[in-house]
Amino acid sequence: MTEQALREEMVTLARSMFERGYATGGAGNLSLKLPDGNFLTTPTGSSFGRLVAERLSVVDIGGNHLSGDRPSKEIAFHLAIYRNSPDCNAIVHLHSTYLTALSCLEGLDPDNAIKPFTPYYVMRVGQLPVIPYLRPGDPQIATELANRAADYRAFLLANHGPVITGTDLRDAVDNAEELEETAKLALMLDGKAIRYLTEAEVSDLEGRGK
Questions:
Q1: What is the value of pTM for the model shown?
Q2: Which residue from 37, 101, 197, 204 has the highest number of Cβ atoms inside 10 Å of its Cβ?
Q3: Is 82 annotated in the active site?
Q4: Which entry of 74, 177, 178, 180 is annotated as an active-site residue?
């Protein structure tokens, strides 16, 4: 896709998420890898529902602002993932309702916040490690994500929200939507006798694609 087509796709997908309640106000941010190796990202404080293609931010791998409006300060942790995950070409960071609620619970397994109980969660996300609480914008978030980026497709920032990767922006958005639905189901099923997938069933699903 051309840069212009990628800009228009980011605006369209962001508006769709906003209209369906995945993003509110100026919370969350998106990024994707451009054909020239730079990165297109949402500007600081921008609403997913009111993005303008021509005003989207462009940064290089070092985080230098090249064009468009000023990028979000959280682009630093996006870039940390890109540097350490060659298959990642797009990132979605949300403050979506159910995943953010999940991120506020005590006692989550730091290696996997949601024990697998649907095949779609396993195929799209696999595991959801928890990043310990750090204030928004803290450089340590980038360090924590960089250390895990090669091994996972999504992350849960404690008391904050999810960070989800994809092979392109549409894939990352689809992964984010599946993960949000999984969190919703997990909270609905809390306290009930859940039939979790067995290790053999999980192994059978891994590597099957999407």
A1: 0.95
A2: 197
A3: no
A4: 74
